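Collaborator request, handled under Task 6.
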Amino acid sequence: MDAARLPPHDGAVLSVVDMHTGGEPLRIIVSGHPEVAGDTVLAKRRYARRHLDHLRRALLFEPRGHRDMYGALLVASELPEADLGVLFVHNEGYSTMCGHAVLALGRFAVDYGLVAEKKSPETQVNIHCPCGLVRAFVRYSHGKSGAVRFHSVPAFAFATDVSISVPGHGEVTVDISYGGAFYALVSAEQLGLDVSKSRTRDLVDVATAVTAAVKSEVKLHHPVHEDLSFLYGTILTDGKDAFSDTPTANVCVFADAQVDRSPTGSGVTARIALQHHKGLIQLNQTRTFRSGATGSLFTGEAVQETTCGDFKAVVVEVGGHAHYTGAASFVQESDDSLSGGFLLRD
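Structure tokens returned to the collaborator:
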């Protein structure tokens, strides 16, 4: 039996490569997707959201995916120095930055020939994300790719010690920081929880409530582009923000109650920017961040001071490991009423 032969189907075959970074999945769409129109990566993001969202649902939702599946759609970049452009997709729509995906895409770009030249001990990969150009550096030795680190877009603390009203918890103090996407950050202890021991369902419920409260009470703005001015999610932390050699843990709940299995690359960026803003960490001090969900580890450090509009900002280096889990070709049949994807209600 030829197991690789495609089954009966209608229309295009959607081919993907699946990876994970610290347990967080990434489905990279490599072929079968129609061209995404737009002169810039941000314009392509708008076009995909308006005209191609049925394919996001088909590839990420059941029966081919699940509520917490994450995807990357490769697109052309308008920047001559970019090796590739990318749109990030999740259960609610389209993100502007995804650190775990950048770590995975760095390896993918080296292994699949998307860079002009592979260099040892490290190959640079310029990835154009909706938030801007992110430079990844991939360990490469004896024909094999390995660990990846990236340098973020300028990251900054947007607001600190903001009081919000969270149903069931009263007044809660949060910080808001930008690491390619905006996050609310709050110690889980303030909400009676532990990021490493509490039930995932309890963490999701309280993080979702915090996100809703911040969206209702705080108006965000990004100094460069309004497309970036939205709250992506809430990061619950262990409260250990001062620099230490001991790992600090967090859990990120983003989009529609989606739980990041990794320490969250853009979240690490946002946390480092916030800690630097508060004087809790200096340039070139490396911290280790642990996922409260899986125990996987990323590193983060502020490597350069800069600005973003009127905000004092830092460029953050985030490091981690991504691994391949497989490759697949997905098909659709015209008489399959569930082929377009579905999610179960909680």
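The cover message to the collaborator said: "The radius of gyration is 20 Å. Helices lie at 41-51, 53-60, 99-111, 200-217, 265-277. Please let us know whether this matches your experimental observations."
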